[in-house]
Amino acid sequence: MKITKRHLRKLIKETLLSESQMLDIVTNSYEDVEDINILANYALRNDMQGALKDKELQYYIDNNEAAGLVDESMGWLKHVGDEQYEMPAPAGWDLDKVYTFFSKFEDEAYNVYSKKAAAASAAAPNRAERKAIGRAFTYDDVSEDEISSITFQLRKKGGKVVNINMEDDGNLGNMTTGMSSEFAAGYGTTLDKVEKTLRDGGAKERKKRKPVKLSMPYYD
User: Fold this and answer.
1) Nearest CA to 125 among 110, 149, 150, 147?
2) Residues 64-99: pLDDT tens digits?
3) Residue 207 burial (CB < 10 Å; 0-12/13-18/19+)?
4) From CA 93, how far away is CA 25, in angstroms rounded?
């Protein structure tokens, strides 16, 4: 049988439509598993680039939440093909390969997120100050959004800031750290500029407590 160009184009179009169709692999009447099902479809087709570009999965990539999606998926994927869960396995379903795909998706999604975050950080203002703050917390740098999670306290000597104590609410490792003028200078900035960046970013200042004057007990 001779295949014409017209017939070939039709076959290609039908193949593309078939590949883009989402199968009902992971389903549940009570839980929202739509995004897990979408990723399961890409796993079935071994289409990593499609998964990374999928509009519904972009939320997890852009917000660095792919790990959460993958972790939640593990409890569902193992039941595909189990009659009790009414999720019949489609042709070509291989659970080990699906697990591998999901794990790779988590890694690839993080790589995409990291590149986007690095580009956004490089384009944002106060980069030297944010890098100094980040390194004080053992990070490369901090984003403008992360600064609001920091509480800081100024340490002064002779009316001049000589150290900035900082702690975070968990976003940066839930740790307490500090920054000296020498440390700030190592990243091309000053404590005054770091203080301004903290204030502008919504960081909370902890004021130094006033000394409490204790009254002596009075006896008759």
Assistant:
1) 147
2) 999 999 999 999 999 999 999 999 999 999 999 999
3) exposed
4) 10
Output phi, psi for 44, to 5 deg.
Answer: -60, -40
Report the DSSP beta bridge partners of residue 58. Answer: none
Q: Which residues pair with 150 in a beta bridge?
A: 168
| AA identity, residue 135 | R
Torsion angles phi and psi, residue 125, rounded to 5: -75, 170
Predicted TM-score (pTM) above 0.85: no
Token readout for 81 is: 């093909």
Counting runs of H as helices and runs of E as strands, what totals does the chain give?
A: 10, 4
Question: Shortest CA distance to 179 belongs to which of 202, 153, 145?
Answer: 153
Joined tokens for residue 26 = 């992971």
CA–CA separation, 205 and 100 (whole Å): 46
